[in-house]
Design brief:
Blueprint (H helix, E strand, L loop, with lengths): L1 H21 L7 H23 L3 H27 L5 H27 L1
Helix pairs in contact: 1-2, 1-4, 2-3, 3-4
């Protein structure tokens, strides 16, 4: 249960940080901003779905869905950087947050498949 808490806690910190950056998005990038917001909240939903389920196969499916959402979030952040909406420093710090969450998730996948 400790790794579930780490996953949820790191994800919440990342979302809080990204939400602070979303305030500065221009109106011309409203679709990108909405996709980032939607993806972040779906990520939290998947983490809760993972922790509630008991069946190993379903838990692994939710973990893989989390990895997909993280990849999409990484893509959206990279797109934001390419469009010069966020700075290089913010892009790198958000990417580090995403990498940390991804490491925890892959560790959980390895742990679930061993059981």
């Amino acid at each position: 249960m400790n790794s579930n808490f780490a996953l949820l806690n790191n994800t919440k910190k990342t979302i809080a940080y990204i939400n602070k950056q979303l305030i500065n998005y221009p109106k011309s990038e409203v679709v990108l901003k909405q996709n980032i917001e939607k993806n972040m909240y779906e990520l939290i939903e998947l983490i809760f779905s993972y922790s509630i389920n008991d069946v190993e196969r379903i838990k692994v499916k939710f973990l893989k869905d989390i990895i997909i959402k993280l990849s999409m979030l990484d893509f959206y952040i990279a797109t934001s950087f390419e469009k010069r909406v966020i700075s290089k420093k913010r892009f790198e710090s958000i990417s580090l947050f995403i990498v940390e969450i991804r490491k925890i998730t892959y560790g959980l996948v390895r742990n679930e498949t061993k059981c």
